[in-house]
Each structure stands twice: as structure tokens, then as C-alpha cells.
Amino acid sequence: MFLPVQKFADFLTYSIFKIPQGSKLSSAVNFFIFDTIKIFILLFVIVFIITFIRTFFSPEKTRDILSHRKQNIYIAHILAALLGIVTPFCSCSAVPLFIGFVEAGIPLGVTFSYLIAAPMVNEVALGLLYANFGLKIAIIYVFSGEIIAIVSGILIGKLNLERYVEDYVFKIKVANVQYQEEKKTLKKRMSETLEFTVQLIKKVWIFVVVGIGIGAFLHGYIPTGALAKIAGKNNPFAVIFATVLGIPLYSNAAGIIPLVSEFKRLGVSMGTSLSFMMSVTALSLPEMILLRRVLKPRLLAIFAAIVGCGIIITGYLFNLILE
Amino acid sequence: MVIKVLGGGCANCKKLMENAKKAAEELEIQASFEEVKDIEKIMSYGVMRTPALVVDEKLIFSGRVAGVEEIKEVLKKEAGK
């Protein structure tokens, strides 16, 4: 599938840059060109597909699905977590979304299943995982993100934590406007999707390139297995350490995945890397600060602890399954 | 014409405000602009996604950053009636 890309990378390396074939530099340069093009093609395709699907869903619709049908609470959690993947979500919207859901009478736990799934299963992360590690790892990523969202939501629901939601949330009157879904033609959907995809890639490309660049550097200069002692299978705390390390690194999410294959070569286990990545995308400091506006510190801490534990457990599970 | 951008002040909201100002300027429409950051006021429009664009108290759309051309279409329509 990527043969033309390989040919192009060969052409650039050997004919344009005139780097002699077989040298270390040539393999690094060739690898960098090939990988960059491949990753961006796959990233574009996957973000485009997800964004297109998303044009059919809105949080308003999700809210209606979750609040109108009086379904079994567990089904509601599963539904919320699934809708979390396909609804468009910007972390700035976390607060209005939260209030909108709670106001509509959706149980707190179900709201959390949604709020956790949305950033946890991230389209850029998904695209990059697929590009770097193939379908199996990508599917495992989606699956475990969903499980964490569902279980965390159920736990939060069971704990009856409504009193730790800021009081004003329950007092806000949400305008009872029946949201008029914009009528969209297929052409409009496509052009909107394309616009969003380009915007998103413009936002993350630098992180991806820097990530690949650091990966290429590690490739050339750091010996295989260098991190095996501190982050390998034999260190029982590696997953916990990776999860905690990931929390303040939100903006670099897109740069971390191109690095993961290098991490692997250096001896970091796959589960540890995945924990790191999930923590980067789902437990971000900026989002915590936003959520603080609607959640009292105690509930915020419980939320972070439950999701954090979920990520850690997943990490260990992967280390068991994949090694 | 009163143009409001609802949102917490993130990069997307700023971009939308910029585009709205540019659109009004290009159409030579007299308009006042307001950033609505207060969550209670945002919710009073029934909006769950930011940024959202409100023209003369009418919610036009929410949850995305529209381009200048698209906003121009909207403003023309709203000014015409």
C-alpha cells in the first residue's frame, strides 16, 4: 500500500540528497521521510472518517438519547461511553456539557462515562496507533478506553456523589430551546469535515514531526534496551510512574505515539507506553482546571483517582497480554 | 447588529470572534461584539458546545469555528430581514 511512498523516500534520499545507500545516515533519513509521509496519510484518513461520522451526532442529540429513554442504567453507561467516541468534543466544552447533561436529568455516573470516553478515545491517538502498530493495538486501545469509561462511570454513580457537584450547577436554568439541528447536505458535511481535519492536522503536525524526529534521534544514538531496567517488564512501578508522568503533558499527545515504537526498542513495555499515552490524553491538567468549575475538589479527586487506576490496571493488563 | 461569541475564551473562541469581526468588516455592517464567558449566560442559550455564534440574540450554530465566508452568508441573511 505504501510502496509508492517508499519509492519516493528512496528517490529523495539517494538521488536528490545523494546520501550513499547503506550508510547509517541514509537509513535514518530514508526512515524519517517514509514514516512522516505514511503517518500523515493515515492520520488524515482516520481523522477524516471519524470527523465525518461525527457530523451526524451532536451532544444535544446525545443528551436527548440518554435522557428521554428510560433505559437500564448499565445500558445507559455503555451508550454514553459509545457516544463519547462519536460526539465532537473540545475540552473547552466540558463545563457546558456537564451542566447540560445534569440539567437534563442524566445520572451523574452516566454523565461521567460520557465525559471520560470523549477524551480517552482520541481520534489522533487512534490514527497514530494504527499507523505505527496496526489494527490490533488500535482496537485494544478503543476497547480499553471504553471499558475504563463505563466502569469509572458506574463506580461514580454508585458512590452517590451528587453533593460534590457545585451547587450552582443545579440552579442554572438551561434554556428550553429545542435545538434546531442544522440541515446539512452531504456536500456541506464533506466540506465541513475537510475543514476540521485540516485544522486539526495543522494543530498537531508539529508535535508529530518532533515526535518522529526524537524517535529518529533515539534510533541512531541510544542503544537498544537502554530503558529496560527502569521501564521494562521487571519494574513493577513502571506503569504507575508512566501514568503520573503523563498527566501534565496534554499538548504533546500527538508527539508521544510516534515515539512509542522507539520506547519499545529501548525496552519500555507496550502496556507502560499505552498507559502513558492514555494518561496524556484523558487526565489532562487543563481539563481538570475546567472541571473544577462544576465539581468540588473531592469529586474531582475521586474522578482523577478512578480514571488513573483504570489506566494503570489497563497498563498492567497489556503488559501481561502483549509481552 | 449585536454579535456574540459564547465560550470560555479558548483558542477556538478567539478564532471565531476574529472571523466574525472580519466578516462584519468586509460587509461593512455596523455591529457590536461581545464575548460571553459567563457559564450561566452561555447555558441560557441552550448551548452545550462552545464556541457558539449568536446574532441579535439568535443562536446561529455551536461547537465549531466557521470561516469568514460562512459567517458573511449568515450576517447577510440576518441583516436582510
TrEMBL record, chain A:
Primary location class: membrane
Segments traversing the membrane: 31-53, 74-99, 138-157, 204-224, 236-260, 266-286, 298-318
Cellular compartments annotated: Cell membrane
One cellular component (GO) term of this entry: plasma membrane
Alphabetized UniProt keyword annotations: Cell membrane, Membrane, Transmembrane, Transmembrane helix
InterPro entries reported for this sequence: DUF318, UPF0718_permease
Membrane topology of this protein: Multi-pass membrane protein
Keyword Manganese included in the entry's annotation: no
The UniProt record lists the keyword Membrane: yes
Family as reported in the entry's similarity comment: Belongs to the UPF0718 family.
PANTHER family cross-referenced by the UniProt entry: PERMEASE RV2963-RELATED
Protein name (database record): Permease
Source organism: Caldicellulosiruptor owensensis (strain ATCC 700167 / DSM 13100 / OL)
Higher taxonomy: Bacteria, Bacillati, Bacillota, Bacillota incertae sedis, Caldicellulosiruptorales
TrEMBL record, chain B:
Coiled-coil stretches: 10-37
Gene3D superfamilies, per database record: Glutaredoxin
One Pfam match: Thioredoxin_3
Entry keyword annotation includes Coiled coil: yes
Catalytic residues (positions): 10 (nucleophile), 13 (nucleophile)
Keyword field: Coiled coil, Disulfide bond, Redox-active center
Domain Thioredoxin-like fold: 1-76
NCBIfam families reported in the protein's UniProt record: redox_disulf_2
Name assigned to this protein: Redox-active disulfide protein 2
